[in-house]
Amino acid sequence: MQVKYPAYSRQARKKLSSTLNQVLQLFPRLAERKKQMAASLSRGEQQMLAIGRGLMSLPRLLMLDEPSLGLAPILVKRVFEIMQNINREGVTILLVEQNVNSTLEITDKAYVLETGWITLKGRGNDLLENPHIKKAYLGL
Fold this sequence. Notes:
The chain has 140 residues and is of the alpha+beta class. The chain contains eight helices and four strands, in the order H-H-H-H-E-H-E-H-E-E-H-H.
């Protein structure tokens, strides 16, 4: 029986095995949990799985919505490190995240939305120094 992967491009299907190995190297915890149902994974493991599933299609753009939501601080740090590694590999990341400090530390471009409007934009490091950001989001 031939397995079909209609959601993957032809290029991604050709590299399926090697891409899976790369994802499992990024997320060794998933390798340990290979035989488990996704619903039985912890919140952090589910986030890793979601990112890994996105990477399986060999995207040029990876969109992530609140990847740190509900994670323990040590896992948040790891997820942000992984996002940086993915970006270094040439994948653009569009990140929606409320963890302002961690996000601005790693972003090339950032947009601050307030009540649905872009109120600030710029390089992440520059926005970290912005007085409004410091007061409203960082409590400084």
